[in-house]
Amino acid sequence: MRLKPLVDPGPELTRDQVQRYSRHLLLGPLGHEGQRRLLASRVAVMGAGGLGAPVLQYLAAAGVGHLTIIDDDVVEPSNLQRQVIHTMADVGRPKVESAAAHVRALNPEVQVSTHHGRLEADNARDLLGGHHVVLDGTDNFPTRYLVSDTCAELGIPVVWGSILRFDAQVSVFWSRPAAAHDETPAPPGVTLRDLFPMPPPEGTTPSCGQAGVLGAMCGQVGSVMATEAVKLLTGTGEPLLGRVLVLDALAQRWSELPVRPRPHAAPAPTPVAADGEAPSDDLPAITAAGLAARLDARARGTDDFVLLDVREAPERGIVAIPGAVNVPLGDVLADPQAVVHRLDLHPPGGVARELLVHCRSGQRSAQAVRALTDAGARAVDVRGGVLAWVADVDPDLPTY
Q1: Active site residues
Q2: Is 143 within a domain?
Q3: Separation CA 65–CA 67 (nearest Å)
Q4: pLDDT in tens, 321-345
Q5: Domain that includes residue 346, residue range
Q6: What is the pTM of this model?
Q7: Which end of the chain has the smaller Cβ count within 10 Å, N or C?
Q8: What CATH number should be reported for the domain holding residue 201?
C-alpha cells in the first residue's frame, strides 16, 4: 500500500539542483516533486557507525535537506572495517564530527546538526521530535527500544536495521501511518515491540564487538534503509511497514516476514549503558593493573589463583591475557558447578583458590562471577576486561 508523503514539496529546483539530481528527476514516481520533498525534509540518523555510514552518505547524496546525526562514540581503528564514512585521519575524533564533515563535503547543500552524546529518556523527545523520519542503526537494545517508543509516541516513522555476523534485518515501524488517498483506510501501525515485545535477557545476544560482522554487508543493509527513507519522505512505492526483510549474506538470500500489531504493548525497558554493559559494583572486583601484579606474583610462586576468560575462541585469537584458561560464558551459565569442578578450585587439603574472571569489557564476566559464586567459587570480576588490560597494562596489544 502506498502511504502519504511525509513532506510537502519545497521551492522549485534551481538550475544547479536540476543538474545534480537529474537521475532522480528521470524517475517518474519520484521526479521533480519528489526531489523537492527530499530537499524540504528533516531526517535524524541514530548512529554514525556500520549502518549510519552508508545511510548518511546516500541520504546526503539524495539531497535530504537537513540531517541530524546522533552518536556518543569516537572513531576507533576497528570501526574502519565497515564504517566507511570515517578514515584513519578521524581516529579519536567524535563520530558525529567526522560524519558531518563527510556529509558537508559530499553535498554542501545539506544542513547538518550533531549531538555527541547518548539518547536518554529525558532528551529523546527533544532530539527526535521535529524530524520527518528517524533511521535507527544503533547497536544496543536499550537505545533501540527508546527510539521506537519515543517515535511511536510522537507518530514519527522509524526505519530500523539490525546486523550481526552474516545476518541482518530491516523494517519500517510507524505507529500512525497515513494512506496516500483519503478514501483508502490506513494500514495498521506497527512498532519494534510488535516484532520483539521486550529486549532479550541481558547477555544472551552478543554485540558486533563480541561476535563480529561482515563489513560489506553494512553497505547492503544501509542502502536498503536509505531507500526506505526516500520512499517514505516522497510517498514513492510501498515501504516495509508491516514487513521485515531478513538477509542471510552467506547464502546471499533475502526473505520476508510479516509483522502484525500485538494487542498490548510491553512496558518500556529501563535504560542501561549504551554499550549494554551490566553494572557490577556489587561484585568483588580487581583492576587490570591489580591482575598484572597478581600474575607476576603467581609466576614467582607467591600467589595462587585461576584466571578465567569467558569470551569465545575467535575473540581470543585477536587478543588474550597471558595465563588465562578459556570457558565460554554459555558453558559457564549452562553448568557452573561443572566448571568449578573442572577448574580444580578446591585442591585436597588446600585453601580454595580464587577465580578471577574476565571478558572483553565486563558485561559477560559479571554474569559469570554471579553464577560461579552461587556455585561455591570465590569468584572475582576483572573490571574492564581485555579493554582495560590493553589500556592500562599492555597498550601494544590490539583491541576489537
Answers
A1: 208, 359
A2: yes
A3: 7
A4: 999 999 999 999 999 999 998 998 8
A5: 285-392
A6: 0.78
A7: N
A8: 3.40.50.720
